Amino acid sequence: MSGTNPRLRAVLDDIPAYVPGKAAAGGNGPAFKLSSNENPYPPLPGVMESALAAAGSLNRYPDLAATGLVQALAERFAVPVSHLATGTGSVGVAQQLLQITAQAGDEVVYAWRSFEAYPIITRISGAKAVEVPLTGDEEHDLDAMLAAITERTRLVFVCNPNNPTGTVVRKAALERFLDRVPSDVLVVLDEAYREFIRDPEVPDGVELYRDRPNVCVLRTFSKAYGLAGLRIGFAIAHEPVAAALRKTAVPFGVSQLAQDAAVASLAAESALLERVDALVAERARIAGELRAQGWTVPETQANFVWLWLGERTLDFAAACERAGVVVRPFVGEGVRVTVAETEANDIFLSAAASYRKELDR
Ligand SMILES: Cc1ncc(COP(=O)(O)O)c(C=O)c1O
User: Fold this and answer.
1) Among residues 167, 247, 242, 168, which one has the least CA distance to residue 205?
2) Which helix (H) or strand (E) holds 73?
3) Does the C-beta of 165 come closer than 6 Å to ligand 1?
4) Ligand 1 centre from 250 Cα, in Å?
5) Burial class for 137, CB neighbours closer than 10 Å (0-12, 13-18, 19+)
6) Separation between Cα atoms, residue 64 and residue 86, nearest integer Å
7) Are strands 128-133 and 107-112 parallel, antiparallel or unpaired?
8) Å from CA of 305 to ligand 1 middle
9) Atom 6 in ligand 1: which residue has the minimum CA distance?
């Protein structure tokens, strides 16, 4: 036996680790976690019952085709069943999207800063990540993204609203962009936070995909639907893309618990969306109060707000922790703060106010 290690792919060497939002410590530590864009509400009663019933069959593999869920989604979005593919969270589906389009020598274009999984899953595929800086207003620079597309580009992510800034791409700009992207490049509209959008100018990706074979919409049950722990998301795309996604899925990756809870969540949609309305109202309150305190807060259409803090980022995050809430710092840039239960939001607002007073002194 020699002492050499198994040969691993060299592209893995410089892949950044995914940094999960820090948990609330409990005890004397911070009581509330505002660091992962989770939904603060527990699942609705019907959802819990479906999941518990499915737990009775944990000795069985789940339905590979997620038949019941796919049927419910097809009806909900008025799309053919063949245009749907489910996965282990929308990040799982995003990774499959790279598997079906990109390899070494190819390029993947996305805005930066954006969802931190994009650089990771792009590099795992072996393709080169082409990161196009956000504009000064923290928005996608669609013209620069168009200019970054080459004959090697295979996939473009548009995160709408963008994580972590909450900013959006509006209809006219997105349509103009889609009309100009070469038709053999897949454009992924990542709409993880779609249900929180209240700006009527923001298009529904599902309407845009209908007559565009190179557009794929990503959605998740993790955010508005509150099922982050069950790992279930899906794509809506034309047949060749959706079929390729189904081919690359980890067999039985989406548990029956997840499938049945998702179906029950769709059935309980009006009650769920009332909760989303409450979070949207809290979002307006938080953004309004922060601006009144003197912060610059970009207009957000997601379940979080973004505060640009530059070199003060970690200091601010530590001050929030001392007050009892964990936020998500991006070193040297800013913090993303999830809209949560009122009590947690109040703690955050008062920590932000104290910090601001110190700064303005
Ligand atoms: C923009 C965006 N897309 C996708 C996801 C992945 O969510 P999930 O894998 O839980 O569906 C997230 C989660 O934070 C996100 O912010």
Assistant:
1) 168
2) helix 67-77
3) no
4) 18
5) exposed
6) 10
7) parallel
8) 16
9) 91
**pLDDT grade, residue 26 (50/70/90)?**
low
pTM of the model as a whole: 0.96
Question: Contact 352/295 with Cβ under 8 angstroms?
Answer: yes
Contact of 54 with 257, CB cutoff 8 Å: yes
Mutate to test the pocket of ligand 1, among 97, 115, 191, 330 (most ligand atoms within 8 A of CB): 115
Q: Is 37 in the pocket of ligand 1 (CB under 6 A)?
A: yes
Q: 361: CA distance to ligand 1 center in Å?
A: 39
pLDDT level of residue 23 (50, 70, 90 thresholds): confident
122 Cβ inside 6 Å of ligand 1: no
Q: Ligand 1 pocket, 125 CB below 6 A?
A: no
Give the chain's end-to-end CA distance (angstroms, integer).
67
**pLDDT digits over 149-184, tens only?**
999 999 999 999 999 999 999 999 999 999 999 999
The DSSP code sequence of 21-71 is: PPPP--TTS--EE-SS---SSPPPHHHHHHHHHHHTTTTS---TT-HHHHH
Q: Which atom of ligand 1 is nearest to the CA of 232?
A: 11
Cβ neighbours of residue 45 under 8 Å, at least 6 residues apart? none
Q: Is the CB of 97 under 6 A from ligand 1?
A: no
Distance in Å, CA 227 to ligand 1 centroid:
12
Task: Please state, in angstroms and rounded to a whole number, the distance separating the CA atoms of residues 150 and 129.
Answer: 12
Ligand 1 contacts CB of residue 66 (under 6 A):
no
In this structure, what DSSP letter does residue 113 have?
A: S
Tens digit of pLDDT for each residue in 99-140?
999 999 999 999 999 999 999 999 999 999 999 999 999 999
Q: How far apart are CA 158 and CA 318, in angstroms?
A: 31
